[in-house]
Every structure is written in structure tokens, then in C-alpha cells.
Amino acid sequence: MFTVFFVGTLLASAGLIDGAFLRHLEVRSTDRRSLFGRQDQASCLNKDLIQSASDLTGQEPGTDGIKPGQAESETDANNFINFCEGQEITNGKQITTGSCNGIPMGKIPAVGNMISAVITNPQQGAQLPADTAFNVSVQTAHLNAGNFVNPTTNYYTAPQDLDGSGDIIGHCHVTVQDLGSMNTNTPPDPTTFAFFKGIDDAGNGKGLLQAVVDGGLPAGNYRVCTMIAAQNHQPVAMPVAQRGAQDDCIRFSVAAAAGSGLSTSTNKNKNMTQNQDQEGFVQAGNGNNSNGHAAEKNGQGNNGQGNNAQANNGQADNGQAQNGQAKNGQANGQANGQAQNGQAQKNGH
Ligand SMILES: [Cu+2]
User: Fold this and answer.
1) Do 31 and 170 belong to one domain?
2) What's the 253 CA to ligand 1 centre distance in angstroms?
3) How far does the centroid of ligand 1 lie from the alpha carbon of residue 147, in Å?
């Protein structure tokens, strides 16, 4: 810039350019000097950290990996550092009307540290008794579990991070939805769920995590899924696209126990509030939850009353979940499906 300024001065003094252009150059060089000064501030992006790939659409002629049907990437020469300008920023809150989060994605694990999970209870196809407490158990691998920041104030406020072994520091959520029919073709409404819990402990310290569904569920057909997250509740980011899923889902049914006389409509979770306090969740457009956190305490309050007689039958729960039905042909079906898909998917992505 000083060279430009010097040359500009020479050209102007030689009468080759006019004064207005020279003043333009002077202004620019002043701006640049102050910009370099500001660049030292912590609030500015270190220029060594700019990802040059973000300035390209990926569709420039000659680019590796181009295939028909690919979209052009959005571009920004400065890491999208001001991407959220003019929008409501997330700023640690679970904003039900949407927002823009400008925090970096963070540290990405090596392929040898990718997370995997399998739901071990209930098992696929299990039939559980209505209104009876049961455990959702998840065996995880390469999740440094039980790390869980304040979801009311620090939702998405920090990047994904790794521990000394290279595993993602985070936690697992489990979420249960009523599917209506077991083989429904209608995607369940994600704003409606029968049970939700962010598991904020490290389980047995070897990746086995558990959540108790206090009071159980009413009769119905359900899907339970894991949603594994980094510490600030964001979905985990992995190093490669082609991989096995980090999450698991299984389907199970709940039926009124024969001769139990139990009503099937006494679901303690029916107002969708159980355990929501642990995620600071506020559900939009649902009158049941309009009181936000106050409502969430009800989930635990309910547990103490009326359900304990059944909840104490922990062994009964396990017996059902691990019975012959749970280990039926569906398990084989999954194994076969994976083997076949393994090759098919190599073309994808
Ligand atoms: Cu969470």
C-alpha cells in the first residue's frame, strides 16, 4: 500500500493522474493501516485461520470431485465471520422461531474416534407393559459422555471439542415418539414426543448410558432414538461423510398388560414435559409447555407418586425387554441390511 501511495504521489506530481484519484488512494491507505491495527484485536479473525476453500463454490472448472447435480457452495473470503449480520443471533438460547449461530464448528475427530451407538434396551420389536417404568440403555463408543453445559444460557455457544484421547466431549439424548402405526409412512412431528432426556452423566464410565422412563408409556407403537451431541448440545460433527451413523433408533410397542386392569391413558409424559428441564427446552406452539421451565419440574414430581409401585419392578422391565421376542428376526434383518448397504453406499456422497 505504501508502494501504491508512493507511486500515486509520483504520478500525481508528474501530472499523470488527477488529485481526486490521489485522495482516493490516500483514504484507502489510511483505512488499510487502521485495519491492520484492528486485526490484532481478539475480536478479529486471525488471517492465518481463514479457510481459502470457503471462498470457492466447488464448481470452478477443473475442481476435484465435481459431479452433475452438485450445488454451488455459498462463498465468503473471511470464514463467514459476519454471516449472521442483520439476523437474530442464537446467543446461547433455544430460540423456537429460528436464529443464526456464528460459533465455529470446532474440533473434528479422527476416523478412529468416530462415535457409534447402539440401543440395548428396549430391544428392537420389544413389547413393554403400559404405564410401567423402563430403562432406555445406550452403549456408545468414542463419546466422552456426561458433559453437558447449561442449555438455557449456553446452547451452541462453544465449538465441539475433543478430549486427550481425541474423543468428542459431549452427551447423549434419548427421544421417544409415538409413531401411530409401527410401519408408518408419515414422518413423526419432531415437536411432539412422548419422552425426552439429555443424559448428563457418564453412565458406567465405559459408554453405557441410561435414562429411566418414569411411569412408562401408554399403549402404542414407538420409536426411540439417540441424539448424540457435543457439550453445547450441538449435533456431533464427524471427519468423513461416508461412515456408519453415530446414532441409533429402534421401534418397540407398548401394550396394556393382560388382566392388569391398567388404563392405557395414564401416561405421565403425556404433556411432553418429562425431563425437559435438563435441556432447558421450551416448546413453541404447545399450550402444555407455555410455562417453560416451571412445567418441566412436573415430570419429576409425578414420578414420586403413583408410579413407584410399578417403577420398582425394575427386573420385570428388563425381563421383558430382553426376552425372546426382542431378539427375533428383526435383528437378523438389520445385520443383513447393513452388509448390503455397505457396498452400495460407497458411491454416495
Ligand atoms: Cu443436550
Assistant:
1) no
2) 26
3) 9
Cα(196) to centroid(ligand 1), Å: 10
- With b meaning 16 or more CB within 10 Å and e meaning fewer, what string describes 236-269? bebeeeeeeebbbebbbbbebbeeeebebeebbb
Q: How far is the CA of 7 from the centre of ligand 1 (A)?
A: 59
Checking 336-339 for CB contacts under 8 A at 24+ apart, the result is: none
* Tally of domains in the chain: 2
Number of Cβ atoms within 10 Å of the Cβ of 223:
18
Task: Give pTM, 2 decimals.
Answer: 0.69
- Give residue for cell 478479529: 44
Domain boundaries, position 8: 2-38
Position 154 in a domain: yes
Q: Are strands 168-178 and 220-230 parallel, antiparallel or unpaired?
A: antiparallel
- Distance from residue 343's CA to the centre of ligand 1 (Å): 33
Q: In a 10 Å sphere around its CB, with 0-12 CB exposed, 13-18 middle and 19+ buried, how is residue 285 labelled? A: exposed
Cα-to-centroid distance, 158 and ligand 1 (Å): 13
Kindly report, residue by residue over 155-212, the tens digit of the pLDDT. Answer: 999 999 999 999 999 999 999 999 999 999 999 999 999 999 999 999 999 999 999 9
Compute, in angstroms, the gap from residue 202 CA to the centroid of ligand 1.
Answer: 13
CA 233 to ligand 1 center in whole angstroms? 4
> Which residues crowd ion ligand 1, with CB under 5 Å?
198, 229, 233
Q: Please give the distance, rounded to the nearest whole angstrom, from the Cα atom of residue 92 to the centre of ligand 1.
A: 12
DSSP structure string for 106-149: B----GGG--EEEEEESPTT-EEETT--EEEEEEEESEE-S---
d(CA 239, CA 36): 34
